[in-house]
Amino acid sequence: MAAFESLSSRLQNVFSKLKGKGKVSEADVNDAMREVRLALLEADVNFKVVKDFIAKVKERAIGLDVSKSFTPGMVIIDIVNKELTELMGGTQAKLAKANKPPTVIMMVGLQGAGKTTTSGKLAKLLQKGNHKPLLVACDIYRPAAIKQLQVLGEQIKAPVFALGDQTSPVEIAKQGLQHARENGNDYVIIDTAGRLHIDETLMEELKQIHGNVKPDEVLLVVDSMTGQDAVNVAQSFHEQLELTGVVLTKLDGDTRGGAALSVKAVTGRPIKFAAMGEKIDSLEPFHPERMASRILGMGDMLSLIEKAQSNIDAEKAAEMERKMRTAEFTFDDFLEQMEQVRKLGPLDQIMDMLPGMGKMKGAMKDMKVDEKQIGRVEAIVRSMTKEEKAKPELLNHSRRKRVAAGSGTTIVEVNRLIKQFDDMRKMMKQFSGMMGPKGPKGLKGGKKGLKGMLGKNMRFPF
Amino acid sequence: MSFFKKLKESIAAKTEAVTNVFKEGLSKTRTAFVEKVEELITRRKKIDEEFYEELEEILIGADVGVNTVMTLIDDLRAEVKKRKIEQAADLQPILSEKLIGLLKGDDHAELRMAPEGQITVILFVGVNGVGKTTTIGKLAHKFKSEGKKVLMAAGDTFRAGAIEQLEVWGQRVGVDVIKQSSGSDPAAVMFDAVQAAKQRKVDVLLCDTAGRLQNKTNLMEELNKIFRVIQRELPEAPHEVLLVLDATTGQNALSQAKLFGEKSAVTGLVLTKLDGTAKGGIVIAIRNEMNLSVKLVGLGEKMGDLQQFDSEQFVHALFAGLIGKEEEKSGTTSE
């Protein structure tokens, strides 16, 4: 969202003051933590969870030696990110497996979180692993909930056990389990009705189902758009049912998903799956590190920073940045810069990693970053003479014609490239600003630059 | 006359029953929220940085948007400076007034209805699982009991069981449902529904749509088409486009209001599931930033648990504790 400034650019403001300092002082950390706090709150992380989190990060950040590292901002982001990832459960968790099949999985949660849909998706996922799941329809309250599960079962050809909406859910669950035993289903997924965590009667019903079928997994299904209340919900369900894990749904939306952190913090239970789309096979294992950068509103910036740190020659980057600032940027530098950027990996992947790019995906669908195009651009530039590369102004019409012939392209393409070269200077400045010693400054501008170019319906020039 | 007295009187004029529904539905919300503010004021006698921070947390804890809270806190700081307030207790009335100011706006809570004898079309939009179908069922019941002829359109042709869900509601409240088979074009369903509504001379047509995340371009275009078809068939329609919001939703509700607004010209909000512990504070931010107000609230599971939103009732239910104190105080000073 436009209203959300990414954490990196915010931190950059804080740290621009302390250029050249070797150590991060307590006051600096306090300033930075204020920004981190806001970013987390804006992502819907519960304020209590934020408080504890900030205290922890602060402890690690004070007195940290930053002289050798990129920038203090990067260091803080790194700590925040690592801490977040760890909090959300370092590695992916797997589904429990009963010693004696069937393994019983119970799905619980508020109304509209996506329990029924997720049950179907989970069954599909299990089928892929050559299991035989049975779906049990225990939502007798919401009109047509049973029907919904039956339709989903039909779609994926998984059996659905239902007894209509007049039998008690406890009974349905019991008989469902029996049915699975008799029919050789190795997994039983019990879909329960959505309920408020404060509804005592309905919570009691869940406890009874729990007592009767003794589930190996009790998964709380949580809408990733949930706000501050996520802690109350998770805590309450956990106290009454002893959850074993969490499923985060609707993550294909544009929410930052701070609820993930809140839920993990109060229950201590791993987030096992993330539902990422309307399709039945869109249930994926949860990736804490991706979630961390998402909550921070940074796209996959962090991987990009890491890649940049390991692949880009800091000295060269500094020199390049100086050149660009002073507008000495030439086609020679352009080639070199391209080389540097390409070291980071395929371009469309880099684009994916930039914050704000996710939003532009729609616009970018038609704009495939074409690696062949890059080769063509390279050919054009290499067809220029030394002088021309150093002084692009020299390129008049006849020279351009020669370059086109030499590179096997057309004059239109050459013209376009030269025209874009100016735009490029602006944009590359942003790229290099991000990678250079000054950290991710001006990313927003970079986005704008790119957008402007896309807006004019241009191909990505390299 | 004090602000609260006026508020109280205007509420007294309303039926006791409605007030009770609000009070009950919001009891959790109220105790959690108001008690916290009160506790803060009695515990922290002085107004200092920590006081502000805690107040900020209480408000953010109610999902009131971060930006809105920051503005409110800044306003309070300025006020405290101007009036030279030192004690937290003295801040209370200012705080209550500011909070109420945020919630209360110009009242457009009434649903816009077509003139007598014409069809009123209400379109429901929102993300998945917020309670669109349930809200339509409840609203159909409400109109029906007012003696209106109602028709429902099963525009959610995507989610498994959605059409059946609306049909069950139709049977419950005794209202016909216009539908096509699952997977058909929802805009075609709307076309049929509008024609049927004209033929059968109904008073109200309630249109369900499939839940969709606001960042899915294609689905949002589909919604736009639905909107255009309705508009083409009945130039005045839809009279209301209601964005259904789950009260537990956090900051993402802002993005929902914005993007749904762009594609379907949202005219108001329905806040559902307010009977839980969630505060639905994000509607304050939406009101502030997008000038969209809440028209209906879902306060429970029963058919009659959908209420017309009344900001005075909402404020009263939410801040009953604070208002009580204020009255006591103003009572003693007048003696």
UniProtKB/TrEMBL annotation, chain A:
The EC code for this enzyme is: 3.6.5.4
Q: Which domain of life is it from?
A: Bacteria
Where is the Signal recognition particle SRP54 helical bundle domain positioned along the sequence?
3-88
This entry's Gene Ontology molecular function terms read: 7S RNA binding; GTP binding; GTPase activity
Localization, per the record, is: Cytoplasm
Q: Name one GO cellular component term.
A: signal recognition particle
Keywords for this protein? Cytoplasm, GTP-binding, Hydrolase, Nucleotide-binding, Ribonucleoprotein, RNA-binding, Signal recognition particle
Positions that bind GTP: 109-116, 191-195, 249-252
Domain (SRP54-type proteins GTP-binding): residue spans on this chain: 102-297
Q: Is the Ribonucleoprotein keyword given for this protein?
A: yes
Pfam families to which the protein is assigned, alphabetical: SRP54, SRP54_N, SRP_SPB
Q: What InterPro entries would the database entry show?
A: AAA+_ATPase, P-loop_NTPase, Signal_recog_part_SRP54_M_sf, Signal_recog_particl_SRP54_hlx, Signal_recog_particle_SRP54_M, SRP, SRP54, SRP54_GTPase_dom
Q: What is known of its domains?
A: Composed of three domains: the N-terminal N domain, which is responsible for interactions with the ribosome, the central G domain, which binds GTP, and the C-terminal M domain, which binds the RNA and the signal sequence of the RNC.
Function in brief: Involved in targeting and insertion of nascent membrane proteins into the cytoplasmic membrane. Binds to the hydrophobic signal sequence of the ribosome-nascent chain (RNC) as it emerges from the ribosomes. The SRP-RNC complex is then targeted to the cytoplasmic membrane where it interacts with the SRP receptor FtsY.
State the family it belongs to. Belongs to the GTP-binding SRP family. SRP54 subfamily.
Could you identify this protein by its name? Signal recognition particle protein
Which gene name does the record give?
ffh
Automatic annotation (TrEMBL), chain B:
Q: Name one GO cellular component term.
A: plasma membrane
List, in alphabetical order, the Gene Ontology terms for molecular function in this entry: GTP binding; GTPase activity; signal recognition particle binding
List each copy of the Signal recognition particle SRP54 helical bundle domain by range: 22-103
Compartments, as annotated in UniProt: Cell membrane; Cytoplasm
Primary localization class, coarse: membrane
Q: Name one GO biological process term.
A: SRP-dependent cotranslational protein targeting to membrane
Question: Domain of life here?
Answer: Bacteria
What keywords sit in the KW lines?
Cell membrane, Cytoplasm, GTP-binding, Hydrolase, Membrane, Nucleotide-binding, Receptor
Q: Per UniProt, where does GTP bind?
A: 126-133, 208-212, 272-275
Q: What enzyme class is recorded for this protein?
A: hydrolase
The record's catalysed reaction(s) read: GTP + H2O = GDP + phosphate + H(+)
EC number, UniProt record: 3.6.5.4
Give every AAA+ ATPase domain span: 118-296
As for membrane topology, the entry says: Peripheral membrane protein
Q: Which Gene3D superfamilies does this entry report, sorted A to Z? A: P-loop containing nucleotide triphosphate hydrolases, Signal recognition particle SRP54, nucleotide-binding domain
Establish whether keyword Transmembrane is in the entry: no
User: Which ranges carry the SRP54-type proteins GTP-binding domain?
Assistant: 119-320
The entry's function note states: Involved in targeting and insertion of nascent membrane proteins into the cytoplasmic membrane. Acts as a receptor for the complex formed by the signal recognition particle (SRP) and the ribosome-nascent chain (RNC).
Tell me, how does this one assemble? Answer: Part of the signal recognition particle protein translocation system, which is composed of SRP and FtsY.
The Swiss-Prot or TrEMBL record describes its family as follows: Belongs to the GTP-binding SRP family. FtsY subfamily.
What protein does this entry describe? Signal recognition particle receptor FtsY
